[in-house]
Amino acid sequence: MTRRITSAVNSLVTNFSRRNALLWLGGSGITTALMVGTQKEVGASAKENKELKLVNPPTLYNATQNGYSHIAITPPRTRTVYISGQFGSDLQGNLVSADFEQQLIQAFKNLRFALEAVGAQPSDVAKTTILIVDYDQTKLIPLGREIMSLWGYKPPANTLIPVPRLALDGMLFEIDAYAVIPEKPN
Predict the structure, then answer these.
(1) CA 15 and chain centroid, separation
(2) I need a labelling partner for 59 at 20 to 30 A (CA). Which of 34, 35, 37, 49 fits?
(3) pTM of this structure
(4) 7 alpha carbon, distance to own chain's centre
(5) Which of 85, 161, 154, 153 minimizes the C-alpha distance to 126?
(6) Could you read off the pLDDT of 55-104 as tens digits, one per residue?
(7) DSSP state string for 81-101
(8) How buried is 2 (Cβ within 10 angstroms: 0-12 exposed, 13-18 middle, 19+ buried)?
C-alpha cells in the first residue's frame, strides 16, 4: 500500500511542478510555506545544510525584529520532539506568581529544562506557539527579552495567540515547541 501511495505521489511530482503537486495534495505547514515563498536557492541550501535552517525571504518583512522567523526547514535524518505547553509553574505544578512577567520567565526556564531533558538545544527549536491571556502589546516587551535571551537574532518560527484563559485559573502564559534533533548513527 505504501509503495502505491509513494508511486502516485512521485508521479504527481513528476507531472506537475513541485509547488503545484504539494498544494494539490493539500500540503500544509512548513512545506507549503516554503513552496509558497518559492526560492530555488533557499531549497538548495536547505538540502546542503545539516542543521535547522531559519528562513526570512526578502519578499516578506523582517520577522526577526518581532522575535520569530517566517520559515523553519528541518534537516534530513532528524527526530522531531514535541514539547507540550510550558507555563510558569514550579516542580509541584503550582503557578510561581500571579504576575504575567514572572510566569513568562518561569515558562521559558521550563522550556529550557524540557529541551535539556531530551538532549536538545534552543537552536534545535523549529517552531513555537505562544498563548497569552488578556494580550496587549505591552506584553511583547518582556516576551521579546526572553526570546532574545534564548535565541538571540535567530528565533524559530512562531505563532502568538491571544486567548481569554488557559488550563488553570490564574495561568497567563504558555509556550509549546517543536524541535529537531539529529539522529545518531547506529
Answers:
(1) 32
(2) 49
(3) 0.69
(4) 31
(5) 154
(6) 999 999 888 988 899 999 988 888 999 999 999 999 999 999 999 999 99
(7) EEEEEEESB-TTS-BS-SSHH
(8) exposed
